[in-house]
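Predict the assembly for these two chains.
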Amino acid sequence: MPRRDFIHKWTVYALGLLPVWLLDAYILPRVPLWGTVVPMLLPLAAAAVAVLEGAYAGTGFGMAVGLLWELAYPGGFGGQVFYLALAGMAMGAVSQYALSQSFLGCLICSVGVLGLLDCLRVARMLFINAAGLSDLLQVAVPEFLWSLAWTPLVWLLFRAIYNRVGGTKLA
Amino acid sequence: MKDFLRQNGILLLVIAFLLSVLIGVLSFVMGGKADPLSNLVNTVTAPVRSGIAAAADWVEGVYGYVFHYGEMEQELKDLRTRVGELEEEVRQGEEASRENEQLRELLKFQTRRRELTTEPVKVTARSTSNWESKLTLSKGSDHGIEAGDCVITETGVLVGIVDKVGLNWSTVSTIINTDTEIGGIVTRTYSAGVLEGDFSLMNQGKLKLNYLPEGAQLVSGDEVLTSGRGDMFPSGLPVGHVEGVFTDPSGQTRYAVVIPSVKLDSLIEVFVIKDFEITE
């Protein structure tokens, strides 16, 4: 793919990420579900692009999303960049070799990336003895389910972008 | 496997790993100051954040006006009644203050003084995570804000402590966040304890007053203020009211659950205490 088309393609994906980020960072925290639960949309964006574009692009996009998460959100310590890049690679590879580039594939990958993220958080909180397992699950489970409910919207957005500029369409 | 990784972005993964380490090290080294990368990103995105916050506040205002007009009217009536009661209390308080001053002069006590240097700031973003309670503010080091500064409402109620400062933004760890640790005192009994965030209480919007003295007789509704011990934070800032007193699972110590006086989900403007001088 020529350099110009490559830049065009990833600029459009970055523009697609913009509304997801604004919704995730500034709009949805103002209207939490049941007064407390805020969804995580950025891992869903990484999952959608990894499923559509494959492992290599998934790694790069995951890294970019991780960087955004670390730098533009409070309380980052660096781990999200590597986690989302690794998750992007894994999700891209799984969708390439085992699943299909479909909504179902994206949903399965989203379950994986969100589930593992919440498991890691619960494990970390248990390790530092911050709370009991039941208290942590009361946060993790609604967060996981509410985040997952946003998968169709994120998938539709990135699917529309993929239909326009994705894969080797610009080549 | 080697070929698979080579084809599928192992180089990108290595870069991601190095970036993770870099961000982790920088945030650890910089402490209360934002690391250069997040400072850059948040400084550039500050106008977007402020714009969205202003628009969202306006929409919330219109929504409240349209759908909660009756409630607002009732609240206004209640507030007018409350203002009348408070005016009466102020009149009585002024008299008591004059008497107090005369007695202090008579006994040659130093006059009690409380000076707070504050900076008004807008709340531009609310907590984005279910695992912590933080706010993002519209001003930072360019307005003299530092990590560790107290944040209060227009009525002086404690909101939280500034935990990271960038050029034109800062983040606040609210009083219900799990890293909160401030000296607290119950005004009725003068029982001192430590106000601490607790994960399970955080999601209910509450916090703990830990390490209560053995004989402390607290009741529901008791007011809790900052004690000012350690001179890190000003004393006398209202925090909230006691909901109930409990014994921890070990049966060794008692703690009180405190309901904060501040409504964290509806804050628009707050004040950062940049400096304070209190003479008791």
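Residues 11 and 147 of chain A are 25 Å apart (CA to CA). The two ends of chain A are 5 Å apart (CA to CA).
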